[in-house]
């Protein structure tokens, strides 16, 4: 018979191996992934060099369950790409749900759009092709207290996350959620800066290190950095 487990040696970190990640995908993610989300994901992998940028399916599933738990009706997304997180959101919202989706470049969105249409959720989406900051500023000027967003998902240019945070705290209702994607930045946030780091990774690392520190101490929110995908920081507006 096996002896007792020595809990002092058990690793508390969830993902110990690629096999474990694969296990999660195969047992609980892929069987429940909407066929059009799967279609959009596969088309992105085939047609876009930067397919890696799309939110992975286990994270889409987490966002979807949270949206349903908080009864989100009105959401905003910054950084759409081909629309995996957008379609996951649109499928999770009720029929009269509304999403303001902002991306500086519409071309990748065109790849995902046929799947969004086929899923019958295009009517929930207001896509705006623009840099996000001026749109957020305009929304702040126009929005009324009873029109605030229930949920925001930020997955765009990392150096601007701190700017988005200040604006989204004015646009998301008290008790609502703001989620920041890629806050672990391929693990680079936890190690000293490596001079040979690819310039694209380098550009995101310092702002994310700073943001993670800032969010952890920001009294206006509750927050949790979830080690799913490339790191997802979930915030709840307190006041
Ligand atoms: N959430 C997406 C992935 C987004 S990738 C998915 O699940 O597939 C990041 C996106 O941010 C890119 O499409 C890029 O065009 C967009 N982006 C970069 N800078 C931006 C800015 N200043 N304003 C709005 N969008 C921006
Ligand atoms: Ca991302």
From TrEMBL:
Pathway noted in the entry: Alkaloid biosynthesis
Pfam families, alphabetized: Methyltransf_3
GO molecular function (one): O-methyltransferase activity
Keyword Transit peptide annotated: no
EC number: 2.1.1.336
Substrates-to-products reaction catalysed: norbelladine + S-adenosyl-L-methionine = 4'-O-methylnorbelladine + S-adenosyl-L-homocysteine + H(+)
Keywords: Alkaloid metabolism, Metal-binding, Methyltransferase, S-adenosyl-L-methionine, Transferase
Co-factor requirement: Mg(2+)
Family listed: Belongs to the class I-like SAM-binding methyltransferase superfamily. Cation-dependent O-methyltransferase family.
Protein name: norbelladine O-methyltransferase
Organism lineage: Eukaryota, Viridiplantae, Streptophyta, Embryophyta, Tracheophyta
């Amino acid at each position: 018979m096996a002896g007792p487990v020595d809990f002092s040696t058990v690793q508390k970190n969830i993902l110990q191996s690629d096999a474990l990640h694969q296990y999660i995908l195969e047992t609980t993610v892929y069987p429940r992934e909407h066929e059009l989300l799967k279609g959009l994901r596969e088309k992105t992998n085939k047609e876009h060099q930067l397919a890696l940028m799309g939110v992975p399916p286990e994270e889409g599933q987490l966002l979807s369950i949270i949206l349903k738990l908080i009864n989100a009706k009105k959401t905003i997304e910054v950084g759409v790409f081909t629309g995996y997180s957008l379609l996951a959101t649109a499928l999770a919202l009720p029929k009269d749900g509304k999403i303001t989706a902002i991306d500086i470049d519409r071309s990748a969105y065109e790849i995902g759009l046929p799947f969004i249409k086929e899923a019958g959720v295009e009517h929930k989406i207001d896509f705006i092709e623009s840099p996000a900051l001026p749109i957020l500023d305009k929304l702040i000027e126009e929005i009324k207290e009873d029109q605030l967003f229930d949920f925001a998902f930020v997955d765009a240019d990392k150096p601007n996350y701190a700017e988005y945070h200040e604006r989204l705290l004015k646009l998301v209702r008290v008790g609502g959620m703001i989620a920041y994607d890629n806050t672990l930045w391929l693990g680079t946030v936890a190690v000293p800066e490596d001079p040979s780091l690819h310039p694209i990774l380098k550009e995101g690392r310092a702002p994310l290190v700073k943001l993670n520190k800032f969010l952890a101490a920001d009294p206006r929110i509750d927050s949790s950095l979830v080690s799913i995908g490339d790191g997802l920081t979930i915030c709840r507006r307190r006041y």
